[in-house]
Amino acid sequence: GQQVMQIPQYQHVQEGEDFTTYCNSSTTLSNIQWYKQRPGGHPVFLIQLVKSGEVKKQKRLTFQFGEAKKNSSLHITATQTTDVGTYFCADNAGNMLTFGGGTRLMVKP
Amino acid sequence: DGGITQSPKYLFRKEGQNVTLSCEQNLNHDAMYWYRQDPGQGLRLIYYSQIVNDFQKGDIAEGYSVSREKKESFPLTVTSAQKNPTAFYLCASSPRQGPRDFGAGTRLSVL
Questions:
Q1: Among A84, A86, A48, which Cα is nearest to B90's?
Q2: pLDDT at residue B26, rounded to an integer
Q3: Most CB atoms within 10 A, among A28, A105, B27, B57?
């Protein structure tokens, strides 16, 4: 079935550094949803990307959907300790939301 | 205060025992879902329901059962057939194909 891969699995950054997580698929993605899960918490919806080449911003977060709709990325500018958590992408195809394995972000103050 | 309520927060299962996890939503969402999350892993779909009295198997339905008798409720039973039940169980709901709203989760462990 559909597989969604995320890299890297873990990322340590110094506070103030940038961070990027990548989401890839061998097949065309329907539309991409991004979630954030704080340690010990539950996933919280961040954004949905639908169109090829789409770029959306939320403050320091920039989300992109690839032109071929086979990849997506989340970039955080100037990380803060509040950004700590695991970021998941998920392909929203019909009723089946297929999650990537997530990228765990750790920020050193 | 709208949202999804899961209970209990922590649950312990003895060998051979069935246990039921509760999930209630007051968001008036049609669709409800159960996911399993293992440490350091992504979420895997167990079951989902788009409408009352109807539900479908997800990727890892074996050893689990569900019911959807009311729009607001979607309980999950972890049966004795599930040999490795220790995990974090997350219930979610959504408008059709919309983003998922997740509950706070239930952590299930085996005694």
A1: A86
A2: 96
A3: A105
